[in-house]
Amino acid sequence: AGAAAEARFISSAKGKGLFATKNIHKGETVFVERPVVSSQFLWNALYNYRACDHCLRALETAEENAQRLLGKSSLVLPHPEQCSIRKDLHQQCPRCQVTYCSAECRQAALEQYHQVLCLGPSRDDPTHPLNKLQEAWRNMHYPPETSSIMLMARMVATVKQAKDKEWWIKAFSQFCSKTANEEEEVVHKLLGDKFKGQLELLRLLFTEALYDEHLSRWFTPEGFRSLFALVGTNGQGIGTSSLSQWVHACDALDLPMLQREELDAFIDQLYKDIEKESGEFLNCEGSGLYVLQSCCNHSCIPNAETSFPENNFLLHLTALEDIEAGEEICISYLDCCQRERSRHSRNKILRENYLFTCSCPKCLAQADDADVTSDEEEEAEGETDDAELEDEMTDV
Question: Which SUPFAM superfamilies would you find in this protein's record (predicted)?
Fold first, then answer.
């Protein structure tokens, strides 16, 4: 990461924040960050959203991607040369056949966590402890997905494989942690009403699959809940798509006007048809833990945003405004529609999903507004905010 920003401690209430160390121009990339650990969501993988098992790069060509989302194998995309997927580079783990986008990713996974998690010939054995854990998680956490038990499994496997275990334990411990009550709220949010029973079942399966004495605290009821809450609070959604990569590349083509109009109309129609068939689930989706990004506080008028323009887990933080040296860099945890709602509605979403009340300039300016939502907002309250939130988290 460049030296354009650094994390600083603000207060015990707010924890850390990210601050500009030099003047940053609107549109500039503040930093590009690789996650400490990441993982694709389990339902997403089950439904054949094929992604690199390490970096989440989409593995289908843009055409295959569009055909699957449309349910139409005869679709042909124009300008196939604009697709960035290189199938000749893909590699599989020789033991368990999970697929990687490159030899580099296969090697990186093997060195960090895959030796512990490789299922070998037991990949399709439902009685294998890791498969039991994944099956239990899928049965508790339906789409739209916001987290994955495999992110926690990769954290454990990383420490198990590491020569310097303390370094990794310290790396994971720097993510914002919560009090016991707050942890319960986060876990409750992820697991719903039956959370205590479900959490205990997950803990037993997690222990059976992964127990390690170096990490014994993570396997106790309190430690497991803390780990769960850490991933629930700090996990950043990751979205990748070979189709959206192709669309961006097509947008950049220098075409005669008529061809440009035809191509734009084709793309617009394609997205409409896909929405009818697949709804909003367009991307390969997962989540990861990012050290710098997790220090970014929320603002309802953010001066930066995250995206994944490289079609993998590399997170780009981009300035939405000019940011002066010393100024705090904030992102929004809400999507555009949610940001337009009343202060009361915004804070209801933030309280439920992130356990804090916002005091950004916009919220302070609206502090005297009535704590009620308007009629049209009342109607919107009934819709699930999670789906919108998830959408924002994984926009590519």
Answer: SET domain (SSF82199)
